[in-house]
Every structure is written in structure tokens, then in C-alpha cells.
Amino acid sequence: MGPFPLTLTRYIIQKQAAYPGATGEFSSLMAQIGLVGKMIAQDLRRAGLISILGTTGGTNVQGESVKKLDEIANETFIKVFQYSGLVCALASEEMEKPVTLPENWPHGKYMLLFDPLDGSSNTDVNMPLGAIFSVHCYDGAARLPSESELIRKGSEQVAAGYLMYGSSTMLVFTAGQGVHGFTLDPGVGEYLLSHEHIRIPAKGTVYAANEGNYQMWPAGTRRYFDYLKARDKATGRPYSARYSGCLVADVHRVLLDGGIYLYPGETEKPEGKLRLLYEANPLAMVVEQAGGRASTGTQDILGIKPTALHQRVPLLIGSRDDVTLAEEFIQERR
Ligand code: AFP
């Protein structure tokens, strides 16, 4: 018999033993996120049957309304964390206002911000999807957190990560000591350590962006894309374009193989599309922990002082040298 595979729970418990005063709450939190992943992966496996069973957002053969998968994913997160004793507030892309969980009070010390189903338009075409999560600690002893207390800098996150629903279901996270990836073994229903201490190459040869927006970008951004496509053997150009329409999947590829993902600001929409608190911040923490960088083009993502829960931000994320070079073009320094 070969070595016993390391499960998610066992891995975190082993690591936590190194920290005096650790209570086991973090391993429970990650186990619950893993459970969300198993439940949503199961729903997604049946998504291709929806044309038989009823369109999401429409009605099924019994005349019942079928909920959209983003709503189902959002509800799954909420249900899993209700009465968990772990989380006192939740905020998500699908909810205008945060939800507090008084049933977990005063023990739930974490606040969880998430995008429950990233790349949802991929559902209908059997392409990868994901979920992104950001974890903060709440230390207000006397009461549940208010909305403004959830709006924190990315550098204050205590953990972050994503679930990816691709050919396998994966959970990738960091708690500030490197980035680790676990792959769900569907046979036993456990996440097994498959990628310990992921390190992103300092430079890659792949870029991911919706280049259909090219005409909407400022001149510096357009020149950067022209640069990526020019031929130059020494710098590995032209880069290969790989874009799935799912941020998690595109960043996952870049995390493992190197390169850059960009959703830049547009001339008439300088704030870009992606959300700071539950998309850019958690992915920035993961990528920085793996040795990469995340920037708006002019500022590090993790240093931004946010002002609103659903704030948008331009995003350049990936290999350190690629992000730094993209910044030089965007800032018209090159
Ligand atoms: P949804 O989660 O609303 O489907 O948006 C997907 C996404 O936020 C991100 O996953 C993609 O990288 C990006 O938007 C795709 O946007 P474009 O369709 O404009 O390329």
C-alpha cells in the first residue's frame, strides 16, 4: 500500500498543531467551504440536463420555477454557514446587503465575503466555473458587524481562496503560509492534497483577457497587448491567448503555469468590471502568497482602501515580471 493521501482536514489540523492557541475553527471553516464545493459541484454536474428538466430561471416540467444556479450557489453558502458557529457575517456578489448570523454569535469570529458562482455564463456551455472567498476576522466583542466593518483592505484578509469546477473540483487556499491546492476525490468525497506550496513562475508566456474590448482600452493598455503579440524569441513572444470567461479558471492556469490575467479599465469605464472585495482581493492574496503580483495598473490590489461593498477595480494579476511590465505600459512609462 502506498502512502496515505493527506486530506484537507488532516492537512490543516497537522499544520495548526504548530501554532499555540489554535482552536480548530479555521480547519472547520475550510471544511465547510469544501462542503459548499461538493454541493455546488453536484448541482453543476446536472446542469447539462437542465434543458430536459427545465431552464434555470424558467419552469420545469412540473411547472415549478427553477432557480438560477447563481442563486442556488449563494443559498448553499448561506445554509452551510448558518448554525456553523464559525461566521458572524456574510457578503456576496448576489446580495446587495450583507447578512449577519446572530445564531453564530458570539462565537463566529470570521466574516466571509464571496462570489458564489464565478463565470456563470459558462454553465450553459459545459465550461469551467468557480467560487471565490475572502476571510476576515471580526473582533468586535459587543455586537455583530455592520456593513462598513466588512469593507476592509485586502491586506487584512486572514485567508482567501477559490473553488474550481473544472474536469476536477479543486479547493485552493492560503492562510498566509503559502498556497495549497486540494482535489476532490469524488469516489470517497474527500479533498486530497494535490498541489502543496504552489509557486507561480516569475514570468510566463500566456495572457488571458477579453480582447474584444480592445477599442475601449486606453492607448497604454492597447500597446501592451500589441507588445504581447509581437514576435520576439528572447522574451517568449508572441504570448498565447487563453481566455475562458471564468476568472477562477483563468487565474488558476496562470497560477500553475505563469503568465498574466487582465481585466483592465476602459477609457469610459476606468473602474473595470471585477469586484474588489470578493474577486480581486482574495485572488490577489493567493497569487501574492505564491510569489506573483496583483495590481490595478497603478496600485497594488491588497493596498486599496475600499469605500463600498460592491466596488469595482481594474485587475492585472499573475507572474511578477508580467504584471510589472503591464503596469509600465498602462502608466505610459514604456
Ligand atoms: P459572472 O460571474 O457574472 O459570470 O462574470 C464572470 C467574470 O466576472 C469573470 O469570471 C470573467 O473573467 C469576466 O467576468 C468575464 O467578463 P467578460 O464577459 O466581459 O469577458
Task: Characterise the protein shown here.
The protein is an alpha+beta fold. It folds into two domains: 8-195, Fructose-1,6-Bisphosphatase, subunit A, domain 1 (Fructose-1,6-Bisphosphatase, Chain A, domain 1), CATH 3.30.540.10; 206-330, D-Maltodextrin-Binding Protein, domain 2 (3-Layer(aba) Sandwich). Helix content is 29%, strand content 20%. The strands form two sheets. It has an eight-stranded mixed sheet with strand order 2-1-3-4-5-6-7-8, sandwiched between helices. The protein has a five-stranded mixed sheet with strand order 10-9-11-13-12, sandwiched between helices. A hairpin with a 6-residue loop joins strand 1 and strand 2 (99-100). Helix 1 packs antiparallel against helix 2 and helix 6 (219-229) packs across helix 9 (320-330). The longest helix is centred in the N-terminal third of the chain and has 21 residues, at 25-45. The radius of gyration is 20 Å and the shape is globular. The structure holds 1,6-di-O-phosphono-alpha-D-fructofuranose. 1,6-di-O-phosphono-alpha-D-fructofuranose is lined by residues 118-121, 210, 245-247, 273-274.
Quick structural summary:
The chain has 334 residues and is of the alpha+beta class. 29% of the residues lie in helices and 20% in strands. The termini are far apart.
